[in-house]
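Protein data sheet
==================
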Amino acid sequence: QVQLAESGGGSVQAGESLRLSCVASLRAFANYAMGWFRQAPGKEREFVAAIFATEYYGASFEGRFTISRDNAKNTLYLQMNSLKPEDTAVYYCAQYSGGTYTSPGAYNHWGQGTQVTVSS
């Protein structure tokens, strides 16, 4: 059974940075595209970034967030810089299974999420 475990969330001030990690219990992790989503209270789950042979970002994140991976460690990362209060949300990593990569339905395994809170 695939397990994804996020970590690295926390409470920061606006303008600061955080790096999220996601450790995956996936054999041949390098063969899988992965993504990050976030969900704020009362809002739908929102695409943040995905990594295939190249990286893709939601419009609100390009230039501030960077997705990367270390296949030797079965770990996915999300470096978040210049954080804003509107970035406050639970952040999830997920394994891509097919379809439109910006849609949560394209991912078949999800972590439990890690809370990021940004205060002004």
Remarks:
- Residues 41 and 89 are 7 Å apart (CA to CA).
- The radius of gyration is 13 Å.
- The chain is about 0% helix and 50% strand.
